[in-house]
Write a structure and sequence with these properties.
EC number: 2.1.1.-
Keywords: Methyltransferase, Transferase
Oligomer: single chain
Radius of gyration: 21 Å
Enzyme class: transferase
Organism: Amphibiibacter pelophylacis
Number of domains: 1
Structural class: alpha/beta
Protein name: SAM-dependent methyltransferase
CATH topology: Rossmann fold
């Protein structure tokens, strides 16, 4: 998302108010003491079947707040993003001898449309998206491609081809942990309690159930043990067992081909740097950002940056190879975005205006101070040459930084 911080929001005209069904679901998800772990809160706020942010019928994605949208992603800025990504996708399809693309969380369908416009016509496109309203937008936008595009109701048990996830992992629920003031125990876990007096959800920390975490995700538990000594008391961050489990599941079902993840995030040593002491949780609404995820659940996006080391290790545990890792800016340059930009027509005054806007948006994609450095690209594969210099990673590969 490409947004700017703001301390507070005015009501957004036409937006729905707090949903009683979502509120009831949040209350019901609490434990016997009234405490709700944050990943459970985030799960309901984003994915409640009727009232979650991603399941309710609001525009969500768009370039400007006037449309009622909340944030913009790279495919919304310019179709050149998808056209450029298609070069890497084509190389992977050809190398793996497959002809199907599966996009997870396809948003408005902008990326699918741009890819389908330039991918070979025999390539089939599959979409898995939890949002009924977004699936409707996708169906309208992609109708001209006919049966090349199909929507799935669940993850396939087996898949051959290329799996794409653009700004998907940042919306997978995370757990919030806080370094204890004393050393025993080293970590506490942050959750939510409902305050009847304030009529609001409030943060409350509890001792982290270390044994339960170790049983569910031994690597996350070991990571916390490893980083605890170097972090100051009160240090707050996120761990990602759900996101890494999703990647592991997908990796196990990928029989031949590749996965491409594009998202904002860091490798582990940067993610848990001592100076990054307040975590990465952020909310988005009306193209403004805030750091209050417990406020107005269901009415705004909640995200956390991606730990790309954890993603890579989860994939490796399921038998995949790490084929490349770099910044989005370097990836797009390697795949030829500057050349595509230079080839845009500039025949009429109207076309020159459109070209200038496209150029400005394209520069946002690779500029270091915009999306070029914060966003990363991770390529994982099975049955592909792990020694090959793949197109998007031919220069500036940072795979070594994941360790």
């Amino acid at each position: 998302m490409n947004d700017f911080p703001a301390p507070a929001f005015a009501p957004v005209p036409g937006r729905l108010g707090p949903d009683p069904d979502l509120h009831a679901a949040l209350l019901a998800a609490r434990d016997a003491s009234g405490w709700l772990r944050f990943d459970a809160f985030m799960q309901q706020a984003l994915y409640h079947p009727q009232a979650g942010y991603y399941t309710r019928s609001s525009p969500k994605l768009g370039e400007r707040p006037e449309s009622g949208s909340d944030f913009v992603t790279a495919p919304e800025l310019t179709p050149l993003f998808g056209h450029t990504l298609a070069a890497q996708v084509t190389e992977l399809l050809q190398a793996s001898g497959t002809q199907t693309v599966l996009e997870l969380g396809a948003g408005s369908g902008a990326l699918a449309e741009a890819l389908l416009d330039v991918l070979p016509p025999h390539v089939a496109y599959r979409i898995l998206d939890v949002s009924p309203s977004l699936r409707g937008r996708q169906a309208q936008r992609l109708a001209r491609f006919g049966e090349r595009v199909q929507w799935l109701e669940a993850l396939p048990e087996s898949f051959e081809g290329v799996i794409l996830g653009n700004e998907l992992l940042d919306a997978v629920p995370v757990r919030v942990v806080v370094r204890s003031v004393d050393d025993e125990p080293a970590w506490r876990e942050r959750g939510a309690v409902w305050d009847d007096t304030a009529n609001a959800w409030q943060w409350q920390d509890r001792p982290l159930d270390r044994a339960l975490l170790a049983a569910q995700d031994a690597r996350c538990a070991g990571l916390l043990d490893e980083i605890a000594p170097q972090l100051p008391p009160g240090y707050t961050s996120e761990i990602h067992p759900q996101g890494q489990a999703l990647v592991g599941t997908l990796a196990a079902r990928l029989k031949r081909g590749a996965m491409l993840w594009l998202d904002y995030g860091f490798e582990e040593r940067t993610y848990y740097h001592p100076q990054r002491a307040t975590g990465t949780l952020m909310c988005h609404r009306a193209h403004r950002a805030d750091d209050q995820p417990l406020a107005e659940p269901g009415e705004k996006d909640i995200t956390a940056h991606v730990n790309f080391t954890g993603v890579a290790l989860a994939a490796q545990d399921a038998g995949l190879d790490v084929l490349g890792y770099t910044s989005q800016g370097r990836f797009l340059i390697n795949c030829g975005l500057p050349q595509r930009l230079a080839e845009l027509p500039q025949a009429t005054a109207q076309e020159r205006v459109a070209s200038a806007r496209t150029t400005a948006n394209a520069h946002k994609l690779w500029a270091e101070h915009e999306m070029g450095e914060l966003f990363k690209v991770l390529l994982l594969g099975r049955g592909l040459d792990a020694t090959r210099h793949w197109l998007g990673f031919a220069q500036g590969d940072r795979t070594g930084a994941l360790g």
